[in-house]
Input
Amino acid sequence: MKVFKFGGASVKDSKSIKNIIKILKLTGYDDVIIVVSAMGKTTNALEFLVKDYMKGNSSYLSILKKIKEDHLKIINDLFKGTEKSPYNDVIHLTNELNSFLKINKSRDHSFIYDQVVCFGELISTKIISFYLELEGIKNYWLDVRKCIKTDSYYRNAALNWKKTEKLVKNETKNKSTIVTQGFIASDSEGYSTTLGREGSDYTAAIFAFILNSSSLTIWKDVPGVLNADPRYFKTTQLLKNISYREAIELAYYGASVIHPKTLQPLQRKKIPLFVKSFENPKGSGTKVFEGSKLNPLVPCFILKKNQILLELSTLDFSFIVEENISQIFSLMDKYKMRVEMIQNSAISFAVCIKDRYENLKDLVSELNLKFKVEVKENVSLYTIRHFNNPSIKEIKESGKRILLEQRTYKTAQFILI
Ligand code: ADP
Ligand code: ASP
Ligand code: MG
Output
């Protein structure tokens, strides 16, 4: 069997959903698991809803209303005048979400977040499953929470591979075309969990791994993996072939086209990953496979915006030693900061971080008890894999100030402001 993953951009409106049918008719859809994200920017909207709800702000109700209306409009576009429509299912799901918000007593932001955002994927897959049916593609709608099991680390749950493996095999047995949700899962008590933003690629890889899939294809709004994000770089080149190792490195440094957790399960079983354009499904796209040489071998640029640079030194002018570094890292863990880059010298320690959960203030006040802390917000982290002189020159002449620079054999990194 094969696994396909359609992300938010590929299901953002009725036209895109119609395009999925075209792709499935072109590729075939027997023995396919179709993993789908929430439509367009629905997850972002649900995040705003949670924020307002947590503040006790009744405006969350208007966000909910808007999300419901947007989906009903798509249903109207796709199913007008037809006998079977997902209308009732979607109304039922939005009512379920509304009731949760009304009766919920928890104040745990991450818990509430997961109970809410999962509706984006539940709704999108309902609509797509019905539409496939309407177009003559018989399929089975699977609530993925029945089989993808995680711990209760809400918003970034860790997979329980053993339980998941057994349940996935059971739930998919004797079914030919399955439509299911990416990103969402459930814990041992049955509460919804999520695998981290953009986690649908990872869900698809989990299915591919457990079911020994012959390939995984993720359908994107780009021709494949490029040597730079076209949103930020004017000229880009398609990477036709990449090794798993190279793709892991690119994803790790922040090439957001593939979720970093996706690649290792595939690599373990040597399952090829194709990244293809949903606008041009016949295009070659990118093939990620064992031992493929990076083709073409060009410098790859990765830009991460909105980073924070902390420069720490001790209050008593002593050197930064193991004990200090251990304290710093345990605070990074406590405040869920993602550490992107570090640089150590005798008297100072620089760390570039991403503040995923708005904890910077608390982190800095705790660090201040032991260190002198300099904070630079809004810096950018540039990474160049396979750098060469012209690519370094390009960064150096970008007109931005370089705060930190680091090079290894294949990778150069710069923090710019
Ligand atoms: P989806 O959520 O629809 O699956 P994403 O938006 O997460 O898709 O990923 C596609 C986007 O990734 C592209 O629109 C592009 O801006 C961005 N991107 C970042 N780095 C790269 C890269 N190296 N190659 C291609 N696209 C990239
Ligand atoms: N819908 C989720 C998100 O936007 C998961 C995904 O799209 O991969 O983060
Ligand atoms: Mg996405």
Q: What stands out?
A: Residues 109-134 form the longest helix (26 residues). The chain has two domains: 2-214, 300-416. The pocket of magnesium ion (ligand 3) is lined by residues 7-8, 37, 198 (CB under 6 Å). The first strand starts at residue 2 and ends at 6.
